[in-house]
Amino acid sequence: MKYTVESDIGRKRKVNEDRVAFFEHPDHFKLAILADGMGGHNAGDVASEMAIEEMKSHFLQVDQAQLETPDAKKAWLDDVISTINNKIYQHSLSHEGCNGMGTTLIAVLIDEQDCVVAHIGDSRVYYFTSEHVALITRDHSYVNVLLDHGEISEEEAENHPQKNFIVKSLGTESTIDPDFYNFTLEQSSYLLICSDGLSNKITTDEMAAILALPMSINEKGKKLIQLANDSGGEDNISVILLSLNDGEV
Prior knowledge:
Layout (H helix, E strand, L loop, with lengths): L1 E7 L9 E7 L5 E7 L7 H18 L8 H25 L10 E7 L2 E7 L3 E5 L4 E3 L6 H7 L5 H5 L20 E6 L5 E5 L1 H4 L4 H8 L5 H14 L6 E7 L6
Antiparallel strand pairs: 1-10, 2-3, 3-4, 4-5, 5-8, 6-7, 6-9, 9-10
Helix pairs in contact: 1-2
């Protein structure tokens, strides 16, 4: 498996509230994490930094026996995220400058080719093969709530003025209930984890076109960031790109 991790402040923001990381456990497990601090709240960068550092600490100390099955992996992620949510929430209550802070979270636990995804907010996971692209996660957004209730159409959702308003985030409430997804990586495929600074600016077709270019995975990650910036760069932009492509340059 090859990977690259990229994060850019963008062209409009004064602070990068995104945090991204990729960790490898001595027992072969890997963990990809992306946290997008809440731009409309105080200290979003504090919340995202806490999420990454706490996930890292728990992951590097976990015993292989706790991660033997997909259900065990999900239970471990759920427990760790609940603990971190409470820590961020309590920090926000006890530090005046951090009141109301929060963050999205994508945590992908990788066991060889098997993946378990924990998801909170509107950061995304895409899966690309040579034949198709799939959006693995579903945004926890106000627009999706309206869609679920049949109040707006898919077309209206794309241009809705409250498109970026999320209804679930890590650390803003005393409890949290992440969504979980399981899937298996195939050979000659890519896993793309990104903040909305990327997904709001470039299409899946544009993503796929970059992934098909004859360049290294590091160059592809930088190219994705560049295109989002060239398309406006109004937000922080972060990417974790993983590849099981035997033909990777």
